[in-house]
Amino acid sequence: MTNQSIREAAAGLFPGGVNSPVRSYRSVGGDPVPIARGQGPFVFDAEENRYIDFVGGFGPAILGHAHPAVTAAISLAAAEGLAFGALGPREVALAESIREATGLERLRFLNSGTEATMTAIRIARAATGRDLIVKFDGCYHGHSDGLLVKAGSGVATLGMSDSAGVPQAVAGLTAVLPYNDPAALMRWFDARGAETAAVIVESIPANVGILAPDPEFLETLQSLPRAHGALLIADEIITGFRLRRGLSGVLPAADLVTLGKIIGGGLPVGAVGGRADLLGLLAPEGPVYQAGTFSANPAVMAAGLATLEALTPAAYQRLDQVARHLENGLQAAVKRAGAPASVVRFGSMLSLFFRPAPPRDYAEAREADTAAFARFHRAMRQRGILIPPSQFETWFVSLAHNEPEIDAAVRAAAEALREALPA
Ligand SMILES: *Cc1c(COP(=O)(O)O)cnc(C)c1O
Q1: Average pLDDT of span 226-231
Q2: Positions modified as N6-(pyridoxal phosphate)lysine (predicted)?
Q3: Residue 205 Cβ < 6 Å to ligand 1
Q4: Whether residue 150 has pLDDT greater than 90
């Protein structure tokens, strides 16, 4: 099949021609690149054109694509049978490895990040006997009904859904506050603290590009909900095992933590973890129902184990060093081009915003010049560099990226910036 024949067949089969919206390239324009295979830092389209990949599967591919240890672990698991609907050895091994690295007392594995956040909220509501949830504008926690919500006009109003099909009765239980705004959080808790079950937040927001958390905001997040008897849920689905072996360390006081992406080694996964008493509320020990035919599937657990095994402290040092090289190269290219753009990096995750200064919240992120980003994306892919197809998705560097790939990406970016800027 050619790239075009794949796209044409998919257009009829799948809404928007894709099975997850951002893959459609709607926000950058042009034809989405269908990926047939990947190897290390590279992906190949159906016509064997090679790209240096900074999409990284939107987070999981921290070892690069088709890492031999991960491939071997999945093959072995497959050869031993895949669907038993029973407890097995691999889930115990992976959970022990995660517990050792994170300090989470107990865990439950699920099949996606969406399931993890949905379950964390159900636990929080059961634990507190309260219904209201607070999230932050621009933070993404998957697509469950109660989390697809954006702010009403005032900060202390309850939400309206971003999506059709979500009942107002559900969306109305979620409040959306501006990120990095401790005063807004204080006003909320003054008014509705006694009804609030939990505050959920990405430890480092990375679904609107990256927002750097202010220390004062992090402090308020970790003290205020607790003072009002509400829980703090740290969504570490991107940041868990991305920045260091274990959690990001940004919200050490979180009561519940959600994980996903990297811990599945490229296969579908989620996990909710935290205090033993809170996890003990889950069925069959407690009254909170949650289940899954495929939960802790042996192939997923095998891929996760092989991935975590490769993620040594030295691996994170190397990731940081390679990603810093990319950051420095991009900064220099931005400066030389005189581009109104900024680079934000935490470890091996990076954003290039078409906005002169890095944004502090979603309102500022939205000021980015998305048309310039779209031109930049096209110019990069013409040069064999694949970055996420949206200004608001984060670039990921993997352990398979070496200096030649970074240098090639920086050279391409220097040219692409000039093409992207209005003459
Ligand atoms: C990806 C992501 C999710 C959702 O995970 P899925 O596996 O796509 O359901 C939730 N929270 C954050 C922070 C994410 O990045």
Answers
A1: 98
A2: 261
A3: no
A4: no
Ligand 1 centre distance from Cα of residue 142 (Å): 5
List, by residue number, the catalytic residues.
Answer: 140, 235, 261
Residues 6+ away with beta carbon under 8 Å from 271:
98, 107, 108, 109, 110, 116, 258, 259, 260, 263
CATH number at residue 113: 3.40.640.10
**CATH number of the domain that residue 58 is part of:** 3.90.1150.10
Which atom belonging to ligand 1 lies closest to the Cα atom of 260? 7
pLDDT tens-digit map of 311-321: 999 999 999 99
Residues 50 and 74 in one domain: no
Kindly tell me the sign of the dihedral angle through the C-alpha atoms of 373, 379, 380, 381: positive
Domain encompassing residue 56: 3-62+312-420
My answer on whether 372 and 333 are in the same domain is yes
By most ligand atoms within 8 Å of CB, the mutation choice from 58, 140, 394 for ligand 1 is 140
Which tens digits make up the pLDDT trace of 56-90?
Answer: 999 999 999 999 999 999 999 999 999 999 999 99
Nearest atom in ligand 1 to the alpha carbon of residue 117 is 10
What's 344's DSSP letter?
Answer: E
Which amino acid residue places its CA nearest to atom 8 of ligand 1?
Answer: 113
| Ligand 1 mean position, distance from CA 261 (Å) | 7
Atom of ligand 1 nearest to the CA of 112: 7
| 260 and 286 together in one domain | yes
Ligand 1 and 114: CB distance under 6 A = yes
Tell me, rounded to whole angstroms, the distance of Cα 400 from its chain centroid.
20
Say if residue 146 is in the same domain as residue 232.
yes
Are 338 and 291 in the same domain?
no
The model carries a pTM of 0.97
The predicted-structure confidence for 34-49, as pLDDT tens digits, reads as follows 999 999 999 999 999 9
Of 60, 59, 65, 57, give the one whose Cα is nearest residue 40: 65
Domain stop point among 265, 280, 310:
310
pLDDT in tens, 274-322: 999 999 999 999 999 999 999 999 999 999 999 999 999 999 999 999 9
Q: What is the DSSP string of 48-63?
A: --EEEE--GGGTT-TT
CA 207 to chain centre: 6
The number of distinct structural domains making up the chain is 2
Pocket residue to mutate for ligand 1, from 18, 58, 141, most atoms within 8 A of Cβ: 141
Same domain, 304 and 318: no
